[in-house]
Amino acid sequence: MQTKPYSILLAVMTLVTISCNQAEKQTEPLLAQHHDTKKHWSYHGETAPEHWAEIETHSDCNGNHQSPINIIHINADSTHFENELSFQYEPSTLIHDVENNGHSIQFDFEEGDYITYKNERYCLKQIHFHEPSEHKINGIIYPIEVHLVHTSKSGKATVLSILGKEGEESQLFEFFESFLPLKTGAKKEINQSVDLSSFLLQDRPYYSYGGSLTTPPCSENINWIVFKDPIILSVEEVLKLKSNMPINNYRNEQPLNGRVVEYHY
């Protein structure tokens, strides 16, 4: 008779243990589902740029040297050209493929074209587009911004920013757009040569500053070169690019936080 309380206690503990194990098994799929549905950054709503630092917790998106910025010409430090920037864009360089990655249209390049910036070589890796522009000059937002991303052997990056305004047709953009439309997530091999020297960037005035990638992980210590004078392309070309990308795929303006913008002319 004395063993009954212990038997009852044992039975209760057994029931509690079973219940806890069942509860754990029931919550496991919910936890897995929560993990699998982690929000991915975008340009709209709850995953828009102002929320990137919350979503991408291990990124630099909340850093102090972020891009893009509004460049005020009168506040820039002016310097004459000192051969800091030179271009080696060859007609024979191949575009490997084009991809609609859900954030932009991106063209990936084979090794060939490169720039020399501050005595270091940076090889062209890819070109992508933002509509409207991310960088502003004197508060002006342009219809399009082209980013030419270059990397060095030491792992540093220099991004050329070319702003575009509407006007006459551009043969170079006609070439790029000949591979569109492209559905989100789709990739198309190209393996055709393109002559980027038609951008006519040599000896163009430009601004330079230290910033970041304009998409997560928003990595800082990026050399930015923003050309002062926009290129010209037709309204139809702008609209065709826009129809193949997310609407308004730009990051909002970031504070300068004491950084110096240089103007090279």
TrEMBL record:
Stretches assigned to the Alpha-carbonic anhydrase domain: 39-265
Known EC number: 4.2.1.1
Name of the top EC class for this enzyme: lyase
Xref: SUPFAM superfamilies: Carbonic anhydrase (SSF51069)
Transmembrane segments: none
Obligatory cofactor(s): Zn(2+)
Entry-linked PROSITE patterns: ALPHA_CA_1 (PS00162), ALPHA_CA_2 (PS51144), PROKAR_LIPOPROTEIN (PS51257)
Reactions the enzyme catalyzes: hydrogencarbonate + H(+) = CO2 + H2O
Gene Ontology MF term list: carbonate dehydratase activity; zinc ion binding
Assigned protein family: Belongs to the alpha-carbonic anhydrase family.
UniProt protein name: Carbonic anhydrase
Organism name: Pseudotamlana haliotis
